[in-house]
Write a structure and sequence with these properties.
Blueprint (H helix, E strand, L loop, with lengths): L2 E5 L2 H4 L3 E5 L2 E5 L5 E5 L5 E5 L7 H13 L6 E5 L18 E5 L6 E3 L1 E6 L2 E6 L8 E5 L2 E3 L5 E4 L4 E4 L8 E6 L4 E6 L8 H4 L2 E4 L2
Parallel strand pairs: 1-6
Antiparallel strand pairs: 2-5, 3-4, 5-17, 6-16, 7-15, 8-14, 9-10, 11-12, 11-15, 13-14, 16-17
Length: about 200
Amino acid sequence: MGFHEVRFPTNLSFGSIGGPERRTEIVTLVNGFEERNSLWAHSRRRYDAGVALRSLDDIQALLAFFEARRGQLYGFRWKDWADYRSCPATASPGPKDQPLGIGDGISREFALVKTYRSGSEQYVRPVAKPVAGSVKVAVAGAVLVEGAGFSVDETRGARHARRGPCRRRRGHGGVRVRRAGAVRYRPDPDLDGLPSRQARFRAFR
């Protein structure tokens, strides 16, 4: 799968509309009850940046970005302005925002995730494209320094510890720009207007 490690211009994505969607299969039984089955393990995002275009310069920048990605051929990074931090929108990201795992003395790689909670239910979403220098990590309450205590794979969203955390020590993390999500263009042939079609995107992970 082709991917360019470049982010869609944030001045064009700011003001865009969109968000998560899920695919659920619903079957109505003869007795009137329903059976439901979730077809996707994780939600996918869909965005429309066409509403954020404000000038001819914006349209030209959009066209240039579209052509450089060869349309839908290559994916790219996208900043979701509604959900780009490991903490609430009005708070400052910190190294203890999200649980990342519990040490066993051996494991050195931990995936970056964000947990969404509502009542007794929760959903853990993988963070696949953290922005360079934005990840903060703490183990057993002690804040680690990137480069000395841990490193980050910015293409996969994995954190590597210099040594495996001791048994039962909890690791936490925070991300300032939580996720420059991986998306691709989603031109819609049923909609008129070239710039409008070239400003629609779908997340693929």
